[in-house]
Fold each of these.
Amino acid sequence: MESADLRIFQAVAYEGSITKAALRLGYVQSNVTARIRQLESEIGTALFHRHNRGMTLSSSGQTLLAYADKIIGLLDEAALALSPSSEPGGPLLIGASQTTAAVRLPRLLSRYYEMHPKVELTLTTDLSDRLMEKVLQYELDVAFISTPCRHPELTPVSVFDEEVVVISAPWIIELDDALTKPNLVYSKGCSYREILEGWQHSRGIRQLKTMEFGTLEAILGGVSSGLGISLVPRVVAEMPGNAGSLRIHEVPEALRRMKTELIYRKDAYMTPALRALLKLLGVSTEEHEQGQGQGQGQKQKKKQKKEKEQGLSKEREQVQVRK
């Protein structure tokens, strides 16, 4: 199994089509088809289900894709680590929650791209738990999440501190009245949704009416029209476009602050592109890089210790044989 085969397999898996994968890779379609069949023959199982709409991963294909993402991610990371250039460039895969992507990142990424135009920025939005998993699987270099990260393989850094408020239609004056309206929120797993629902439960509101929306714009539009309420950062509620269309209700002090954390793998190679992003956010990379060096040193010591123990074991075996 060669890395080139894994890259072709990965492209077909994400594109769902031989034709689209060939176009993306710049290969002849028949070549991609032959390489996929060769890979399936080598492994001894079908990796895709073929149908009229394209190709869908089989259970074996899904398993291989998880490994392919890791392997290709590590190979690309190794290539960057060995590159002599220190100028930020190449891909930088960033993840963020919908709210952070809409409010905090446009100005940040615009400034970053102005400083480092050779970096190829990609932004993916998702729920915090899924973003953490994508960073762990090498699908993202970094992610901005709105829930505390305690995973032992990830480094969390607090980068934004938001004040959150309840928003309603402008004619709803009292907070108690607002809290009886339906909640307009993202799907389960959203931190803002969990805080709002937990607070309502603590106030004895048990039968919550919930409407799920896919974008921040849809939530704001629904709230301004009187459909329900939501919990958002104050900076969102006070955006110029929302003036006069929303009423802001303050929440208790204990619930008022929410931190956004930036996460990346503890074993991640600090590429110039990633280092530049962290620097722009005021995050020091010195401790991370020192930790990597210490980690490599510890691995080397463990390896030497193991080799020494194996050598002693062989000597003992040889002594026993002589006896």
Amino acid sequence: MTSSLRLSTVILPIRRWHDGGRALWVRAEELGFHAAYTYDHLAWRTFRDGPWFGAVPTLTAAAAATERLRLGTLVTSPNFRHPVTLAKDLITLDDVSAGRITLGIGAGGNGFDATTLRRSDEEPWTPRERADHFDEFVPLLDRLLREPSVTHEGRLYSANEARNIPGCVQSPRLPFAIAATGPRGLKLAARYGQAWVTTGDPKLYESGTPEQSVAAIRGQVSKLGAACESVGRDVSELDKVLLTGFTPDRPLESFDAFVDFAGTHAELGFTEIVVHWPVPDSDFAVDEKVFERIATEGLSQLG
């Protein structure tokens, strides 16, 4: 993974594959995006009552439809995944794509993923419980993707001679992009991540300013550095990924807005910026011509 700034996109899994879905992934490759990700949810926000397809089958199809584009999740979580079954899916994805898969992974939130598999009288996990699951999930998944047979008896997860042969195409395993802002998650990113992901400070999305957002993200980057130092790792070894769309900035409002945004965040140390593929009549509705110009020319404008 390189240190130069890259531009990637998130394609929401809302289109039938043979009714426009496939074309989006092919177009992402044509436009030169570094990677195209999709969300790994059972349902999501305002899209809950419309089409929403599974991440793993979607990425498998995208791998078959493209040749160079990196592919991945932003992000998978323990809310409805188990490390053993997820590892099997990821090894298969890595094989189908010839080694183009990145796993974006986070502790998960309190949305539909947190409640869909629970009984009506069950409470979703608290933030501490989500962090507890994440703490055990990531190290076990790391082993499952590296080792041909794994036995693990943990407090929250078990694996009994779980076989994962032949393993990943990428060596020693496919890369983890770990989404985290809290101390426990940041330490996981420092220890197991090849990349770190942030969406900024969610408290600033509606009422904050771009300047406040930059300051908050600068603080997150600093905490990542401290987490890396605590485990004896150089923070420069990790790519820093900014998933846009959740800060007060509007980087896709115009070409110049994107160039300013990208330059500002490159100075903070980010190596990858991820923008949402346009979705009409949604929070991700943007001018498609502006979007395509940003994809093809945006990074070339940076000094």
